[in-house]
Amino acid sequence: MEGNWGSEEALAAVECACACACRQDRAAQDTAVALVDEVRVSGISAGGTSADDGARLIDEIRALEDRKSALAARQARLSVAFDHLQRRQQSDAGMPADQLGAGIGAQIALARRESPARGSRLLGLAKALVTEMPNTLAALETGQLNEWRATLLVRETACLSAADRCAVDEELAVDTGTLAGAGDRTIVAAARAAAYRLDPRSVVNRARNAVADRHVSLRPAPDTMTYLTALLPVTAGVAVHAVLTRQADALRSAGDSRSRGQIMADGLVERITGTPGGISGIEIQLVMTDRTLFQGDSEPARLPGYGVVPGGWAREVITSGSAGSVAGVSMPLAFNTWLRRLYTAPGTGELVAMDSQARLFQAGLRRFIQARDDICRRPYCDAPIRHHDHIVAWHFGGPTSHSNGSGLCEACNHTKESPGWSAEPCPGPRHTLQIHTPTGHTYQSTAPPLPGTPLRSKELMPTASRRRKRELLRRAKVRKRARLNASVLNNPLAA
Prior knowledge:
It is globular, with a radius of gyration of 29 Å. By secondary structure, the chain is mainly α. α2 (26-41) crosses α17 (463-490) and α7 (147-156) packs parallel to α9 (184-198). The protein is built from 17 helices and 13 strands. The strands form six sheets. Strands 11-12-13 form a three-stranded antiparallel sheet, with no helix packed on it. It has a two-stranded antiparallel sheet with strand order 1-2. A hairpin with a 5-residue loop joins β11 (422-426) and β12 (432-436).
């Protein structure tokens, strides 16, 4: 390991943390102890005072942060070079001018283990830094800005022309001292002010056109909660908040025991759905094992669009569906429950069949793929499924079957149709498909495990991982034996 870590106190803290984290599993605890020993042998406990060691730690942390920024700048340059290369190849292949650049962001996303949407944003960031904001790129390369703050500068100047963006970049250059010690808000404010001074009309138009970006999104939160977010024009947002606030204040004055925030949240749900508790005539498709439902098993369930939920919570939703409570206030839910059986292969957990006798909204095969894939099957993409698509295209002889079908978001399905992209089913632990990109790289996607699917067996564990684990356990046993021998030597009566 590079560098020195310092004092024995720091090592003791690491060892204590490892022991606490693994106290339920003795074998794992021994492995963690062996890891601490390995770090110690690598030169952690060098001589010197604790103050000196602490300074070295901070220096190395800072050096690594600078290196991260430099690597981000290098990635930006490589991304722009890759974009130029791909566009030239696409043009030489006869692709129409308005389609040049298709799939480039998706390839960068796969290489960086990011979602396709973020890959496109990273490519846009790289182009802006390399071609229009050289001072910001230089600050990133030298570690004076991190990637996020460089992103803020690019975002706040996106409405400007290339010439005006270069002017803002020059005005806010690091060597001018404008952004020395500045936080995120200060950087955003400085960029906005500089942009407005250069081109006030573009900034005003951007604010005026931002209303077109209004939307509502849903994302998971811990403990079976969720974030429902609305991006609204400021007047609409303030009006909604004011109405909910007045209602909460009135109910609190009348003696409602719920907190102000709870009343506002409940009022929002009731006003939108028209139903106390917010449960309406929709199908939520809660997936769980029969053991969790009927035998009180602790195996978690899965709620499409949210993720994993505790088995006990899922059981309560089904068995107590006729009544519920919010913050201790009883509220009628009045929803019906249908059971649809899913059949999985023993061991692998691969979905092989499904009942189709409940009231349906879509065809049975689409429901099958939706239940199996849950989210978009493109690696690193967590977007909801919008298209149910053939893996091998139908016009190339691909059958319309569950094995040749996959769930994709809209963007990933369009990317799949770009020249040079292909996919086919391949052997795997569950439903596995192989994706090929125009550069010849290959990525695999495996359907997420359904509730009750066993963890991967030892046979599927990489050989190197098994060898590494055995070596760590061996070291832990040697160290334990050495401790016992030392204790006997120091205290013979203890033997």
